[in-house]
User: What shape does this take?
Amino acid sequence: MKIYKLNNDVNLEKIMKKLGVDKTGIEIMKKKHSFYLFYIKNITCAAANILKQDALSIGAELAVPMGVPNCKNKIFDALLLCNKNQLEILSKKELSQPFKLKELAKKLKEFINLPKFPLKIMGVINANDDSFFEGSRFHGIEAIRQIEKMIQNGARIIDIGGVSSRPGSEYPGIEEEFKRVKPIIDEIYKTKLYKKVMFSIDTFKPEILEYALQKGFKIANDITGLENDEYAEIAAKYGANVVIMHKKGNPKDMQKNPFYENVILEVDEFFEKRIKKAKSFGIKNIILDVGIGFGKRLEDNVALIKHLEHFLHFGYELLIGASRKSMIDKIMKKEKISTTPFERLPGTLAIHIESVRNGASIIRCHDVKEHFQALRVFEEIREFDV
Assistant: This one.
C-alpha cells in the first residue's frame, strides 16, 4: 500500500470517476471541501472497509470503487478526504488496526504539520558554452560581475556549473570541467563573495566538489542524487548542504521515451532511499529537487509541480528548477506556438510561482531580478490578512 498527497485544487469528480466510485457517492463527496486529499494505491478490501468506517465515524470520507463492501476486488485504489483534525485522529486510530493500516497511519502522521521554509532565489552561472540557455553562460571576470549583479538583484544562493546536463549532452571529462569552474571558484574565494551569499557547486564529481568546498562553497548540487559514495563522504566531511535531485537515465539519453507508472510515488521512493544513504554518511543538511526535465515527459513535470507539496513530508526544503525549460515550449505548442529559451521567461515565472504555492522554497533560475519582483509581489498577496 502506497499513499501520496494530492493538491486539493483538483477535479475531484474526474478522479473519483476514474476510481470507479458510484454516481451517488461522487455527488456527495465532490461538494465537500477537504484540505487533505490522499491517493491510496493498492489498498486491500479488508483495509479499505475498516478505514472507510473509521473515516465516516469522524466525518471524513474514503472514496472507493463500487463493489468494495462486498470485496469483489481484492486490491484497488482509494481516495481519502479529510481536514487536519480528522487526519490527526486517523493517524492515531489506524495504529491499532490490521491489514497494513498501521503503516498507513505512520505515513499519514508525516503530513499533519508540513514544514515551511523562507523563500530563496538561486541564480545560475554556467561556465560552459553548451548550456541550453545562452544567457546563462559566463566566464572569468564576466562571471564575477554577473554574480555581483545577481546578489544586488536579490539572489541568496549562486549555483556555479561547468558542464551541461541538457538532454543529449555528453560529459566532457573532469579536466575540462575543472578548467572551466576553477577560475570562477578562485575569484569568488579571493574577493570573499562567499561571505555575502551561499555558493553552490553544480557537479557530480567528488574532486571538484571538494575543491569548491575548500574555497567557501556550502552547497553540493548533485544531479545524480548521491550516486557516488566518495561524493557523499566529502559532503559530510565539510558539513555541506546536499541537493538530492531525481533523474531517470543520463543526460545523453534521458529524454528517449521515459515512462512512469506513477511519477509521484517513484520519485518519493527514490528520495526515501537517497535520504537514508545521505544520513548513513553523516549528511545532515538536505535539499530535495524533483528534477524537472530530467527523464520526464510533460505530464510527469506537470504532476510533480502540481503535487509538489507531497514531498514536504520528508521535512526538507524543496528546490525547483524549471527556468526556460522545454516543458514551456511543449505547452505552447498545444497552441501552435513555438518558443526558444529566450522567449520562455513568462512561462518560467508561472511555473515557479505555482511551485512556491505548492511548497518550494528554493527557486533556481536564470533571471534573478524578474523572479525577485514576481515572488515578492506573490508573497505580499499570499500573506495579506484582512
